[in-house]
Amino acid sequence: MGELEKMTTGLSEECGVFGAYDMDGGDVAPSVYYGLFALQHRGQESCGIAVTDTYGERKVHSKKGLGLVNEVFDEEALQTLHGNLGVGHVRYSTAGGTRAENAMPLVLKYVKGTLVIAHNGNLTNAIELRRELEYTGAIFQTTIDSEVIAYHIARERLNVSCAEDAVKNAMKKIKGAYALVVSSPRKLIGARDPFGLKPLCIGKRDNTYFLASESCAIAAVDAEFVRDVEPGEIITITKNGITSDKSMAISPEKQARCIFEYIYFARMDSTIDNVNVYHARILAGKALAESYPVEADLVVGVPDSGLVAAKGYSEQSGIPYGMAFHKNSYVGRTFIKPKQSQRESSVKIKLNVIEEVVKGKRIVMVDDSIVRGTTSANIIKMLKKAGAKEVHVRISSPPFLHPCYFGTDVPSDDQLIAHSHTTEQIREMIGADSLGYMEVEKLKDMVGDLSYCDACFTGNYPMKVPGRDVSLAFE
Question: According to a count of CB atoms within 10 Å of the terminal CB, is the N or C end of the chain lower?
Answer without folding.
Answer: C
